[in-house]
Amino acid sequence: MKNINKLFKIILKSFQKYGLMSGIQLLWIAYKSISYRSKFISKRPMRFLSFEVNAPNPRLLLALINEIFISEEYFNALSHVKKNNPLIIDAGANIGVSLLYWKKNFINPRILAFEPAKNLEEILKMNISKNYINAQVEDVALGYHEGSVKFFLDNNHLTTGSTNEKRGGGGIMKLNNASFQTLFVNTMKLIWLKSILKVRSQVF
């Protein structure tokens, strides 16, 4: 019952923020998430607002839409950034729902997206292409040092992983790691452009 009430609140908030169609779209995604069984990538994209989104499963998509579009966790960043043609660094881009949010709220944003997990990077690139987003994808993790790092994956939830073994799972993937220092040296103009740096990753 608690889950049903939570879903109802998410759908109601979507309707209030984005109109009737968004509520109907979320209702369909919610229905798909309840009936979801397979852990493989959906070959048919789901729609939210004007976007077509592929996701490994509808539950993940619903959670990301709630976090990014409904709860608007990145809303405070919007007022500090110029509207037209900002440069956005998205560290931990996942399947790209945050990139859709940037596209909705900015005019011609340029996005540098980091996503080291290969299974997510494939879907991220798919969503970038489908929605005509101006983004460059780097398949590396970000941390304090360059080199490589172990990434622990939960085999039962293909989108759950961490560089912390206790937070990840039994599957192990070796990732390339770029340093924050290198990133900032190459993008010093960020300070002058009033751009966004969004980090959704563990620092190691």
Please provide a written account of the structure.
The longest helix has 17 residues, at 2-18. The chain has eight helices and ten strands. It is an alpha/beta fold and 204 residues long. It is globular and about 45 Å long. The strands form three sheets. A four-stranded parallel sheet has the order 5-4-3-10, with helices on one face. Strands 6-9-7-8 form a four-stranded mixed sheet. Strands 1-2 form a two-stranded antiparallel ribbon. Helix 1 packs antiparallel against helix 2 and helix 2 (20-35) runs antiparallel to helix 3. A hairpin with a 2-residue loop joins strand 7 (147-154) and strand 8 (157-162). It folds into two domains: 1-73, no CATH class; 77-204, Rossmann fold, CATH 3.40.50. Mean pLDDT is 77; it is low at 177-194.
Which terms summarize this structure?
alpha/beta; 10 strands; Rossmann fold; 4-stranded parallel β-sheet; 8 helices; single chain; 204 residues; 4-stranded mixed β-sheet
Brief characterization of the structure:
With 204 residues, this protein is α/β, with parallel strands linked by helices. The protein has helices at residues 2-18, 20-35, 58-70, 75-78, 97-105, 118-130, 180-186, 190-193; strands at 46-48, 51-53, 87-91, 110-114, 135-138, 141-143, 147-154, 157-162, 171-179, 196-199.
